[in-house]
Write a structure and sequence with these properties.
Pfam families: Epimerase
CATH class: Alpha Beta
Bound molecules: nicotinamide-adenine-dinucleotide
Protein name: UDP-glucose-4-epimerase
Helix content: 25-40%
Organism: Thermobifida fusca TM51
Shape: globular
Structural class: alpha/beta
InterPro entries: Epimerase_deHydtase (IPR001509), Lipid_A_modif_metabolic_enz (IPR050177), NAD(P)-bd_dom_sf (IPR036291)
CATH architecture: 3-Layer(aba) Sandwich
Number of strands: 11
CATH topology: Rossmann fold
Length: 304
């Protein structure tokens, strides 16, 4: 299938491009910045907010499937209005162009931050958080992601044969980050495990970038198994923590006390059952087997 990946030079995009190419798809990767492309992948540098440039990208790639990852990926990384403006305009432009050019499927990246954790009053209704749990974003990034999900649903209402969906990846760990490269927040995976305060801000969620790539690929390959407008979590089944979340969550998020007790020893605060039910997807890589560095009190160090 001809696939266009936006944001293909990014932390997640590089793995999504590699997974799609490995599965035999004809991939075009488009990004504001140049990045290394696997053999056979066409890399294009373009600003997707530029209407003419975007039209050229779609005309040349003629995508049958689109994975939309481009945007500002970190809360507070830019002024609020820029995050809202860039992320929401990009999603509308890319998804409507995907439908207009005749793609069979288009998938956009959202984020678990739509749930709105990290306010003193946030209290989940239940744990683990699944795709049905109510959302309540409070910062511009989380709100931009909820608007992207709403954009997907709006586009789905008139998209005809094109299935449009959303994936909420957990905290993305790229392959080199298991070897010690800094993660999105600047520290290493081992540091995130050794100091629970670091991962507490994302409720200890994570996902290997290749595992997330496999979910994007499965959605494009099997749109008939996806409800138009559907949301999927792409989050590991275990938490990025050396101790059970029923201990850690109430320590950092006091309003989860009681609810966290229902979580099993190695259970994450999120479930990705929608992707398993529709597509048989589950995260295959876990930090205990992937991490090359040792973590105080928690193992890791596979293969080292
Ligand atoms: N990394 C995570 O932990 C995480 C978690 C949940 C969701 N997400 C979402 O997944 C997506 C990818 O995240 P990432 O970590 O790879 O981010 P990233 O910043 O590494 O990659 C995003 C890419 O988008 C490109 N881009 C931005 N504006 C563009 C434009 N106008 N035209 C073309 N390209 C543009 C950037 O150059 C960048 O390479 C984002 O939408 C992000 O919000 C990421």
């Amino acid at each position: 299938m001809r696939v266009l990946v936006t944001g293909g030079s990014g932390r997640l995009g590089r793995s999504v491009v590699a997974v799609l190419a490995d599965r035999g798809h004809e991939v075009t990767s488009v990004d504001l910045v140049d990045g290394p492309c696997p053999d056979g992948v066409r890399g294009v540098v373009a600003d997707l907010l530029d209407d003419d440039a975007r039209a050229r990208v779609f005309a040349e790639a003629r995508p049958e499937g689109v994975v939309h990852l481009a945007g500002i990926a970190v809360p507070f990384a830019r002024p609020d209005l820029e995050i809202l403006d860039i992320n929401t305009r990009l999603a509308w432009a890319v998804l409507t162009d995907a439908v207009a050019c005749g793609a069979r499927c288009a998938v956009a990246a959202s984020s678990p931050t739509v749930f709105g954790y990290n306010t003193p009053s946030w209290r989940p209704r239940y744990l683990p958080l699944d795709e049905e749990h109510p959302v309540a974003p409070w910062h511009a990034y989380g709100l931009s992601k909820l608007i992207i999900e709403e954009t997907v649903r709006a586009v789905a209402r008139t998209s005809g044969d094109c299935v449009v969906a959303t994936v909420r990846p957990g905290y993305v760990i790229a392959p080199e980050e298991w070897e010690g490269a800094p993660t999105q927040q600047g520290h290493t995976v081992a540091e995130r495990l050794a100091n629970p305060e670091l991962a507490a801000v994302s409720l200890f969620n994570y996902i290997d970038a290749r595992d997330a790539g496999e979910l994007f690929a499965l959605i494009l390959e099997h749109p008939e198994r996806v409800a138009n407008g559907q949301v999927f979590h792409a989050i590991a089944e275990d938490p990025l923590a050396t101790r059970p979340l029923r201990e850690l969550l109430p320590q950092f998020h006091p309003t989860t006390a009681g609810l966290a007790e229902t979580l099993a020893d190695s259970q994450a605060a999120f479930s990705s059952t929608a992707a398993f039910k529709a597509l048989g997807w589950r995260a295959r890589r876990q930090w205990r087997t992937e991490l090359r560095e040792n973590v105080q009190g928690g193992g890791g160090g596979a293969g080292s």
